[in-house]
Write a structure and sequence with these properties.
Order of helices and strands: EEHEEEEEEEEEEEEEE
Shape: flat
Subcellular location: Cytoplasm
Number of domains: 2
Largest sheet: 6 strands, antiparallel, barrel
Distance between the termini: 40 Å
Structural class: mainly beta
Function: This protein promotes the GTP-dependent binding of aminoacyl-tRNA to the A-site of ribosomes during protein biosynthesis.
Low-confidence stretches: none
Protein name: Elongation factor alpha1
Keywords: Cytoplasm, Elongation factor, GTP-binding, Nucleotide-binding, Phosphoprotein, Protein biosynthesis
GO cellular component, one term: cytoplasm
CATH architecture of the largest domain: Beta Barrel
CATH class of the largest domain: Mainly Beta
Helix content: under 10%
Length: about 210
């Protein structure tokens, strides 16, 4: 659009034109289903309704889902978003879905729903992570057990082995098997969850 003023003319895109030109992000519908549970409700006349956001894949009524790490498999009876029934839920959708023959007590926040037949989620006995210490009083050694927030799970994980210190920018190893790490350090650490936890690589299933 053109703008004419006493001080001089201006041209270019208007804000609305610029917004209209933005392409929506591609939704990872082609990946396996991952839906971390935010809550689980018991609704009279309907039954057990887990609630969460689809991160990857597609959730449809009739599909067999497995809840990791508890390894509970059941059929999805219906899927709703904002009190409207959906034929499918895609990444970004916050949905409630009704499941058969599972009590509210069996499911909890932090579990992850996936398709039981297509690359289902599983619990991890241990995992290796890049840890950056932003601000921590004192030193962190093997055995330190902070609470990790991973998707909707909230579970204490033990630093079983600090494998190496790495340069924060390049990722190159600066020290093998350090005795401790402190504020400002980045390290590769083997972590062991205190309770079953579903955690997967960021490259495959962010977050």
């Amino acid at each position: 659009g053109k703008v004419e003023r006493k001080e001089g003319n201006a041209d270019g895109k208007t804000l609305i034109e610029a917004l209209d030109a933005i392409l929506p992000p591609s939704r990872p519908t082609d990946k396996a289903l991952r839906l971390p549970l935010q809550d689980v409700y018991k609704i009279g006349g309907i039954g057990t309704v887990p609630v969460g956001r689809v991160e990857t894949g597609v959730l449809k009524p009739g599909c067999l889902v497995v809840f990791a790490p508890a390894n509970i498999t059941t059929e999805v009876k219906s899927v709703e978003m904002h009190h409207e029934a959906l034929t499918e839920a895609v990444p970004g959708d916050n949905v409630g879905f009704n499941v058969k023959n599972v009590s509210v007590k069996e499911l909890r926040r932090g579990y992850v729903a996936g398709d039981s037949k297509a690359n289902p989620p599983k619990g991890a006995a241990d995992f290796t992570a890049q840890v950056i210490v932003l601000n921590h009083p004192g030193q962190i050694a093997n055995g330190y057990t902070p609470v990790l927030d991973c998707h909707t799970a909230h579970i204490a994980c033990k630093f079983a082995e600090i494998k190496e210190k790495v340069d924060r920018r390049s990722g190159k190893t600066t020290e093998e098997c350090p005795k401790f790490i402190k504020s400002g350090d980045a390290a590769i650490v083997n972590l062991v969850p205190s309770k079953p936890l579903c955690v997967e690589s960021f490259s495959e299933f962010p977050p």
